[in-house]
Design a protein that fits this description.
- By secondary structure, this protein is an all-alpha fold.
- The protein is built from 18 helices and no strands.
- The protein has one domain.
Length: 491
């Protein structure tokens, strides 16, 4: 790699240039808090199942263009500017075609979707109107894929940030005055603002678009669609798995219960979101650009996984210490039943960070058959784990199922990448992972102590220990402390 310090590059990318993404996370938290106050668990549940239904439709209609386009653009951007420009043009046109297709499908299937999700036809009109959101989301996906493929990460983060800010603005009056009836307009307006800002930030990239006929668009887009369609099948498995779990909980426990489930994962995704967003937005195109350089690829995966566990461990320990407080701040005391699912769900993120680092190898390599088989099999396992967990342990059981799943997924994906690509983690990574596991699960076991003073005293020791360990290891790789001191002096 040309970068003299890849660890520093990963760390900077994860923070997304000065913490732009952190503001997006805070806005997401504020949106969730307002939803919890203004529309309650039932409203949060309705938002969750409507959004998940749209995600399934978008997952089908977008044909994986967000993945295949990023892969092609990132591969060409340093080598062939003309080819990159043509690829972007083809992508944008294909997004219009697939977006309109998704909108038509949503509109046509509205009565059936209402019956499937809610058990009646009362939400048919809602799904008809939401077909517009499908189109807007698909157009936004194309714009964001351009920024991601070109690794314009600051613009990518800002586009998401401003879309989130305006989404927050519309939530307050609509939920306040219309309550649950304001959910559909909110979803549409959020999709609208996401599209507008994705367009504003991507429109200046390769503005001189070549003139292509419709036939040329389809011909040149064939390889992109073919790869994207295959890869989308794996992504769809993940979307359908989450959707199946939500539908099961809705039918078994009701909208309040699925509202609690959605709230739990909103918190988890917001809390550790920066780490996983960085992996999907920067790590994937970076890995795609060097995927044929075996030695470099193995180093990049090791570096990504190493930084990810060091960043996520203190976050997990702090989270375990303050779970009830976090729920009260982000939602309301009405959401306290999610303590169990949050506890095990946040522990699972450590295993998720490692497994994702390896899992992206399959996508970057374009090993479509293996990727599909892996995703379908593992996501079917996820559904089974969560369903059985809910039957025998309620929402806490879902959290346990989620944790066990990611442990199995980590072991499975490790075996696959080792067998197929001879991938191995370095001994330094294993040593760091062992310490991270001890810190996280030590903090978890401490939460069961009855003596509050002893419990929080030990938990604070774990917070300090995990922070010192992570900062020390990151400093050795990136001169983090020196960098911070220099920035302070400049101010």
């Amino acid at each position: 790699m040309t970068n003299k310090n890849p660890y520093r590059d990963i760390l900077k990318t994860t923070s997304l240039f000065g913490g732009v993404q952190v503001f997006g996370v805070l806005i997401s938290i504020a949106k969730s808090k307002l939803a919890a106050i203004l529309i309650g668990p039932t409203g949060v549940g309705i938002v969750g199942v409507l959004t998940s239904t749209l995600n399934v439709i978008i997952g089908f209609s977008k044909l994986g263009l967000d993945v295949s386009a990023v892969k092609e653009i990132s591969a060409y951007k340093e080598k062939d500017a003309q080819k990159t420009t043509r690829t972007i043009t083809v992508l944008k046109r294909l997004c219009w075609i697939t977006g309109l297709l998704g909108a038509v499908i949503t509109f046509a299937l509205s009565p059936w979707l209402s019956q499937l999700v809610f058990g009646n036809a009362t939400h048919t009109t809602s799904f008809m109107v939401l077909s517009l959101a499908v189109l807007l989301n698909q157009l936004a996906i194309g714009n964001l894929a351009v920024l991601q493929g070109l690794r314009k990460l600051k613009k990518l983060a800002k586009a998401s940030l401003w879309g989130s800010i305006f989404g927050l603005i519309v939530i307050v009056p609509l939920y306040y005055y219309y309550g649950i009836s304001g959910i559909v307009p909110v979803i549409i307006l959020i999709s609208f603002f996401t599209y507008i800002f994705s367009w504003l930030y991507s429109r200046k990239e390769y503005v001189k678009q070549p003139k292509l006929t419709f036939k040329e668009t389809l011909t040149e887009g064939k390889s992109m669609v073919k790869l994207g369609f295959v890869l989308s099948l794996g992504n769809l498995a993940s979307i359908l798995a989450i959707y199946a779990i939500q539908i099961f909980i809705t039918n078994k426990g009701g909208l309040d219960e699925v509202g609690f489930y959605n709230a739990a994962f909103i918190i988890i995704n917001a809390y550790v979101g920066v780490v996983f967003i960085a992996m999907s937005k920067d790590y994937f195109p970076r890995l795609s650009s060097i995927v044929n350089e075996k030695v470099t690829m193995l180093k990049v995966v090791n570096q990504q996984a190493y930084v990810a566990i060091l960043l996520i461990t203190p976050i997990i320990v702090v989270f375990l210490t303050f779970i009830p407080t976090i729920i009260s701040i982000l939602f309301t005391k009405e959401f306290m039943p999610i303590v169990g699912i949050l506890t095990f769900g946040i522990l699972a993120t450590l295993f998720k960070a490692v497994s994702w680092s390896m899992g992206y190898i399959l996508v970057a390599k374009g090993d479509s058959k293996l990727y599909i088989k892996t995703e379908v099999a593992f996501n079917a396992l996820l559904v089974l784990m969560c369903v059985f967990g809910y039957i025998y342990g309620g929402l806490t059981g879902v959290g346990i199922g989620y944790l066990v799943y990611y442990v199995i997924y980590l072991l499975g994906i490790k075996a696959i990448t080792n067998s197929k690509y001879k991938f191995k983690f370095e001994s330094e990574f294993y040593k760091a992972l062992l310490v991270c596991l001890v810190l996280c699960f030590g903090a978890y076991l401490t939460t069961y102590l009855d003596d509050l003073y002893l419990k929080y005293g030990i938990l604070f020791v774990f917070i300090i220990a995990s922070s010192i360990f992570s900062i020390n290891r990151l400093d050795k790789k990136t001169d983090l402390i020196k960098e911070i001191k220099q920035r302070i002096k400049r101010k």
